[in-house]
Design a protein that fits this description.
With about 130 residues, the protein is mainly β. The protein is built from no helices and eleven strands. The mean pLDDT is about 95.
């Protein structure tokens, strides 16, 4: 059984940094792709960042490029999202999703991911 657990959310001020973590257990290979999505109040869930093709390809939504970095610790099977220069618009519930069946051309579509965590709240406010 695959389990996905996010951690590290919290309240920060604009300009601050925060790192959220995603731990996945029960995966049967290292050929999985992992992505972070977020959902702000009153908005649809959107792709934020992802690691694909065994971690060799990273991709980001335009609004976080240059500020967020996604990385993976293969030994610990944890995916991190380092968020710098945070803005109030980054406020959302952040979800981690993973799957061994993600199609690269469809990587930003949440329907391509089989396993999801319950999310962690990130709030950016002064």
């Amino acid at each position: 059984q695959v389990r996905v657990i996010e951690s590290g959310g919290g309240l920060v001020q604009p300009g601050d940094s925060l790192r959220v973590s995603c731990t996945a257990s029960g995966l049967t290979s290292n050929r999985y792709s992992t992505a972070w999505f977020r959902q702000a109040p009153g908005k649809e869930r959107e792709f934020v960042a992802g690691l694909f093709r065994r971690g060799y390809n990273a991709d980001y939504t335009d609004s976080v490029k240059g500020r967020f970095t996604i990385s993976r610790d293969n030994n610990k099977n944890i995916v991190y999202l380092q968020m710098n220069s945070m803005e109030p618009d980054d406020t959302a519930i952040y979800y981690c999703a993973t799957s061994e069946r993600v199609i690269f051309s469809n990587r930003k579509n949440e329907r391509g991911y089989e396993y999801w965590g319950q999310g962690t709240q990130v709030t950016v406010s002064s």
